Amino acid sequence: MRKDRDELLPAAYPALGFALGLATADVITAPFIAAAGLAAIALLSAFLTGRTTSIPLLFAAAGFYSAASWQDARAVERAWLDSLPADRFVVAIVPVEGAWEARGEGFTLRSRSFRVEGRGDRIELPLRLTLWAGHPLDDPRIFSLRAEGHLRCGEEICSMNVKSAELLSAHSFSNRADPGWWNRAANHRLLSLTSSSPMAARGAPQAAALALGRGEALQYEVREAYRRGGTYHLLVFSGMQIAFAAGMISAVFRRLGRPRYGDWILLGMALLAPQFAGKDASVTRSALMIGVYALSRILGRPTPLANLLFVAILARLITSPADLTDPGFALTFGATGGLILIGRAFSELVPRFLRPVAWGAGAEIGTASLTALFFHQVVIAGSLVTLAISPLLTLMLALSAIASMLVFVSRDLAMPLVELIGTLDTVAVGVNQFVADLGAATVVAAPHPLLVGLAFAIAVAVLTLRRSPAAGLAASIILLVPLLAGLVAAASRSSVEAVTFEFLDVGQGDAILVREGKTALLVDGGGRPHDPDFARSVLLPLLLDRGVRKLDAVVLSHPDPDHCGGLPPLVDLLDVREVWMSSRHLRFPCGGDLFDAARRKGSDLVLADRQAGRAAGSLFFRFHAADPPFKQSFSNNTSLLLRWSRGRRSVLLMGDIERAAEFKLLENDPSFASAEVLKVAHHGSSSSTSFPFLAVSEPRIAIISAGRRNPYSHPSPEVEKRVREAGARILRTDRNGSIRLHITERAVFVSVEIDKAAPAGSL
Asked: Residue 608: is its pLDDT beyond 80?
């Protein structure tokens, strides 16, 4: 009996083996030996047990070797990108996968990969293409663009600035025979309705997201509401849409007594869906499963849904290995696997009317640790919220599909449907916000990725060897272990003994975490222009991984995006007791957003430029803000400065002030400038940190917060030279990662995330 059960899921073993190869390939020094070892284990297992399930592990061994080779190729690509000068001017061929988004005075287009002219290989890093002049080439016929500009690649994404519309041209075109043309054309026409009415402005992006998979026009507030309510996976085009269409096709042809015709149509739909909606993980997963299902029926060899799932996993990883670490890939397969394997097991234990809840619980268990890993959030009873809101989203999906077809006939015919979608979306957002306000969404520390991967491997092994309610319960416990481990680890880090200043590596920006005991204070929050997800994707993980879920105070030095951008969303996500900022910064956009966030959450607002200092728990800070006017850089020069001191120890945080503000500080309060530890102003820009200031400050340790390969060439070599000549040791976040100072009465202990040697003479 066990043998028969095992043979029902032959795809599980090569899929798991290939995923294991991808996950470990970067640490395997001899991939061929690793592949041979895995093959030997497979053969020995087959010989000792007589179970044919071990044979597919031979394919997994090949997966080990292939995965390691892929990692080698990525290492070559990474080395090539690292060798690019900061100001490298290149010609890039960029696929048009989304729509242009207005960003301030320019436009932004995102692509999952690109190709540099003169280099044959495609670079598997996301690209943010920014056009700062003219109008974008927003034509649905364009398949790819030829862009000329300065390419800069960071750790996870590349950016390319195109200074003129003359440097952007169409590279290749598609036509009406291409399913993607219809998708792009429908998206273009739907979004043209947004200016017609407030409800159309809300409904058109939602219709494009649900029916076409084009979610780039959705507002951040809408995304965040669905995310906090635990229904974000229903928001954009995914397996739900393809499964809905497949179910309708199967039902119609069964009703007509022609199920075989339905199977052929399903196979055609599986081939066309990725061409129409894009090749995201959720789309290809559903298309692959439906295609294999239809093909197996056509060939008279039906196979279980669980086996179809593993076939889809293996095919997706072979064609796109980088998806192993993509949240969309993990969540879509985690949810589907939990539904099919765990949900089905649970459904045998409950009455028929509760089976939808059991299936939903299986999907929630399958994604709980993954949601914590990628989004640092767990939504309690998220499956119940999904069940409650699914009928509404299904109705919105049907209306969106009709609207996306009617928009080719007449704008006037599509408009009522688009406005109705906007109304329904208002209701859906309200439900999600209500659930979030009840405290169902909880921020958590991310579990270790290897622990998550191991838990899934063991759980799948348990479920494939014996599919029963008991196996489902055991697999559920195993899958929840990483989440519990993350919660325990975060709790153990929620308090520190000594005074700790940690200069967080947030790229080109400032974020300084100050702690003592259970007191925690954050000075600035980093940020990137026009990136509202920065707080959730970068800043929040850094805090949660250090056990910080509450902040006694959030401090804004000045409202530039690289200091302020992450703070307003962070106040919405965490419990923040007080917000300290200068009254002069309230009139700036980000300063106003921070004020609004504090008011929404009930955090006390402290106007720090109107008092000498303030305490956060056991930590007391003195304030200084130079009086305007300043002829240049008003925002930088009115930065709120903070000075902490205790006994012989002192730390001075300088914001982004420039020479003019430094001279005012030395003139008005020279004792304030004296500090053992100096956070160098303005990321080490040459406009700051003058000789007169350093002569008074006399720091022993100087911290420079700057992004790797940043476009401003920060820090300036001149500043580094001046600081070294002043006798200070320099530490930089772009070289050393996050920098932590443990300060006691006797000494200042320095630890860094990356112990990377600096050039000779820099320390």
From this structure: yes
Q: Are 86 and 107 in contact (CB under 8 A)?
A: no
Q: What residues have CB less than 8 Å from 188, skipping those under 6 apart?
A: 99, 138, 140
Q: Residue range 502-527: average pLDDT?
A: 95
User: What's the pLDDT score for residue 603?
Assistant: 95
Helix (H) or strand (E) holding 729: strand 729-732
In the block, residue with structure tokens 């001149």: 718
- Among residues 204, 211, 217, 202, the alpha carbon closest in space to that of 182 is found at 211
| Residues 334-373 as b or e (16 or more Cβ within 10 Å = b) | bbbbbbbbbbbbbbeeeeeeebbbbbbbbbbbbbbbbbbb
Give 300: exposed, middle or buried? Use CB within 10 Å, 0-12, 13-18, 19+. exposed
Strand-strand pairing, 649-653 and 677-679:
parallel
In 10 A of CB 468, how many CB atoms?
12
Dist CA 740 CA 346 (whole Å): 47
- In the chain, the amino acid numbered 164 is S
Q: What is the pLDDT of residues 192-226, one digit of tens each?
A: 898 889 999 999 999 988 888 777 778 878 888 88
- For the chain, what's the residue count? 763
d(CA 62, CA 18): 8
Tell me phi and psi for residue 116, to 5 degrees: -90, 130
How many Å apart are CA 365 and CA 343, to the nearest integer? 9
CA distance 355 to 346: 8
Contacts of 85 (CB under 8 A, 6+ apart): none
Distance CA 426, CA 515 (A): 41
For 95, the 3-state DSSP assignment is strand
Tokens of 70: 């892929």
The answer to whether 541 and 743 have CB atoms below 8 angstroms apart is no
**Three-state SS string across 287-332, please?**
HHHHHHHHHHHHCCCCCCHHHHHHHHHHHHHHHCHHHHHCHHHHHH
Q: How does DSSP classify residue 103?
A: E
Model-level pTM greater than 0.85? Answer: no
Mean pLDDT of 33-38: 54
Tokens standing for 175?
């036509």
What angle, rounded to 10 degrees, do the helices at 198-212 and 411-437 form? Answer: 90
pLDDT at 513: 97
- Residue ranges of alpha helices (H) inside 127-197 are 179-191
- Over the stretch 699-738, which tens digit does the pLDDT of each residue have? 999 999 998 878 788 999 999 999 999 999 999 999 999 9
Tokens matching residue 611: 């008092």
